[in-house]
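Case study 2.
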Amino acid sequence: MKDGNQQNIRPEEQHQPQKKRKDMSSGERLQLLQRKLYLKAQQEPDYKFYILYDKVFLPYILQEAYRLVKQSDGSPGIDGQTFSEIEREGVGDFLENLKEELRTRTYRPSPVKRVWIEKDDGGERPLGIPTIKDRVAQMACKIVIEPIFEADFEDSSHGFRPKRSAHDAIRQIKEHLQSGKTTVYDADLSKYFDTIPHKKLLKTLRLRITDPRVLHLIKLWLKAPVVEDGKTTGGKKNKVGTPQGGVISPLLANIYLHLLDRIVNNPHNRFAKAGIKIVRYADDFVLMGRYISNSLITELKGILERMELRVNETKSKVVQARQQPFDFLGFTIRYDKCIFREGRRFWNIKPSDKSCKRLRRNINAKLKVIGHYPPEMVVKELNPLLRGWLNYFHIEKVSYTQIVRKKLQWYLRERLYRYYNRKSQRKTSLHGQRAFERLVNDFGLINPFKSSGLVPLGNNLR
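Prediction:
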């Protein structure tokens, strides 16, 4: 069994007596279904699942799908319907209507609302927002088919998978660097989600799923029109792309790029024979080895071209990691001198400058909105930003964040002091005060440098 897959099943669990189905909770029934699908796919790698659609609209599947979609929150789709409206009118009726549409195969997805979000490089990327009904339907389908593909996915894939995270990808990169694989091909795919070819994606899905009703359902989502500023594009004629923002899109993206993982990890091909490893998080990936020849990079590009994908030549590059740093998933990875031991170096993995700037930008934007709030509300708004950022970049025995946390502490102290000492803040209790210290000591603002779980710089040297 691959590490960290959908069901972390111990052998003894498989022989424990099962409860009768009528005595099971919805969560237990869901777990049992996923476990069965996962084990079947794992034990029979060539098996094709031909009856799945009836499971998509099972009541307990739809209930769990709604719970997960609501948990992720998100903006309303093109119909403007919110969770509050659904719950005011009755979640039971909402799910019953969706169940009937799926059961009778009269369900048709609504157009996807497109918005644009800012990227760190100053550009923008499209985000597709389906309606809540469509998100619940997609989640129900994902719940059913995900265990099947989880049984196939490689250990080198970490993005948008159960029990996997960016931390696992960074940890694996550090392990490869420590083993001497310090030549890195840092790859960037051009507009991956927007260019996935529907025909080849559906062909890949058919390697495991032959239920035509499930495949048709997925095709409906792929072909859903896109609405932006009142204009509708896409639809049935659309042949590429799966909208970022769709619940099922990350799984579909992983399923398609799994083809690349299989090729690189195949022990009989050139990549494995050259000692090359791949580490992938969704469409971000690196190849790592002691040496990566130009012919191997050319071969990689040829594979991607056959998949109708394209490498962004301006952003993709070969890096000798002992001589120059590279960024991955918001981290900067560099081979630095140790300040504690002369002549020693270590793999210093820390938040990138872009990640630090993004956090400061988010803090500034938040302060513009909450600056006149009472101190306890300011803390309530700032703490989730700080906590999420600090938790993401702290990886036990892998990342080194003390210096960055200290700089963040300095920034907050200076930023809050300047903000609360403006003329417009004279009426606040923090005007003329050491605002950062007051917010930390009296109201519980997170102090980045003194937060628990810090990894001292220079430990675990390699």
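Residues 132-150 form the longest helix (19 residues).
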